[in-house]
Write a structure and sequence with these properties.
Blueprint (H helix, E strand, L loop, with lengths): L13 H4 L13 H10 L2 H14 L5 E8 L2 H10 L6 E7 L5 E10 L2 H8 L14 E4 L41
Antiparallel strand pairs: 1-3, 1-4, 2-3
């Protein structure tokens, strides 16, 4: 039994005083915090931390878009697929039909060349099936529409060979998103 001597008012830690969430300070958005939230599947916390982090990034920097997912478990698995302490963050994407996705990004790079070098080191998990990571400038991060939507390619003369690399869809939108 505790002694009554020196007993004063019991102090309640500040975290228990209020149930309202606090605003996330950009300095609170460390890679470890964002990764922990993603690995727990706490997408709302990961979004808050990611928004704060994105607000600190210069628009001219580059990042890698690893994938876009609707399901929490998909983002959670992706966060666990990356070894160590990757600099992952997410950003919402609103599709034209009203559905939304969360895009998963990796890092902040000073140039496109640096981002492309980092792309060569992504785990095999992000190179399977439909996933095609790509570098994108922070200023160009999409918030609306489908990132796979591209205008139909211009017809090329029959004598021109097809371009090499990642194929561009011939339709103005992809079937996966629409």
């Amino acid at each position: 039994m505790a002694s009554a001597q020196g007993a004063g008012p019991v102090s309640v830690p500040r975290a228990q005083e209020t149930a309202t969430p606090r605003k996330v300070d950009p300095s609170d958005s460390s890679a470890a915090d964002r990764l922990a939230a993603l690995r727990r599947g706490d997408i709302s916390r990961a979004l808050d931390l990611s928004r704060a982090y994105l607000a600190t990034l210069p628009a001219r920097q580059w990042t890698l878009r690893l994938e876009a997912a609707r399901l929490t478990v998909t983002l959670k698995n992706a966060a666990w697929a990356y070894p160590g302490l990757p600099d992952l963050f997410i950003a919402p994407l609103q599709l034209r039909d009203g559905r939304s996705l969360n895009q998963l990004f990796l890092g902040a790079y000073a140039s496109k060349a640096e981002a492309e070098r980092a792309l060569r080191a992504v785990p095999a998990y992000f190179l399977k099936d439909h996933l095609r990571p790509f570098p994108i400038q922070v200023a160009d991060l999409p918030a609306r529409a489908c990132p796979m939507t591209r205008p139909a390619p211009k017809p090329r003369p029959a004598s021109t060979p097809a371009p090499k690399g990642i194929p561009v869809r011939d339709t103005p939108s992809c079937r996966r998103c629409h």
